[in-house]
């Protein structure tokens, strides 16, 4: 566990306390499976919108359900360590909780931060430019939704394709 990783309850307490102090708490989330410049762009954009930044991180099982059986490339603890090393990140919280998975009507409902946002109630909810504000899950639990424009050419899919291509070139050179 990294020093910035909090339980849902501790994170909700942090958000409530900071809001009572008049601070703006910003929340964003993702798999952060292959951290790249696009993720940093999103995190920096989110950080600029408030006083405290909380990042929700999908569990390994959630990433597998969303991205396929070969993912995540980096296990949860590695992803948390990397995100926790960023000075602009104040807190990390993992979702879904196992209890939510076992009681869910559908796994699709737990692989989003909906239940977490219902508990946290941040001031600002931030997503990347591949979303429209009216599509953002959990928007009803935040005072404001903000979309950070995508950094062109910097997506996980782009990076994975480049790595696969480079790996194929290495294979052909060895033959």
Description:
This protein has 175 residues and is an alpha/beta fold. Helix content is 44%, strand content 16%. The chain has helices at residues 8-20, 37-47, 60-67, 76-84, 98-103, 107-110, 114-120, 156-174; strands at 25-30, 52-58, 91-95, 124-128, 144-148. Strands 3-2-1-4-5 form a 5-stranded parallel beta sheet. The radius of gyration is 17 Å and the shape is globular.
Strand order of the largest sheet: 3-2-1-4-5
Oligomer: single chain
> For this structure, what is the CATH class?
Alpha Beta
Helix tally equals 8
Determine the structural class based on helices, strands and strand pairing: alpha/beta
Indicate the low-confidence ranges by residue numbers.
none
Number of domains: 1
**Shape label:** globular
Summarize the structure.
This protein is about 45% helix and about 15% strand. It has about 180 residues and is of the alpha/beta class.
Core attributes:
Rossmann fold; alpha/beta; 175 residues; five-stranded parallel sheet; single chain; globular
Helix-strand layout with pairing:
Blueprint: H1 8-20, E1 25-30, H2 37-47, E2 52-58, H3 60-67, H4 76-84, E3 91-95, H5 98-103, H6 107-110, H7 114-120, E4 124-128, E5 144-148, H8 156-174
Parallel strand pairs: 1-2, 1-4, 2-3, 4-5
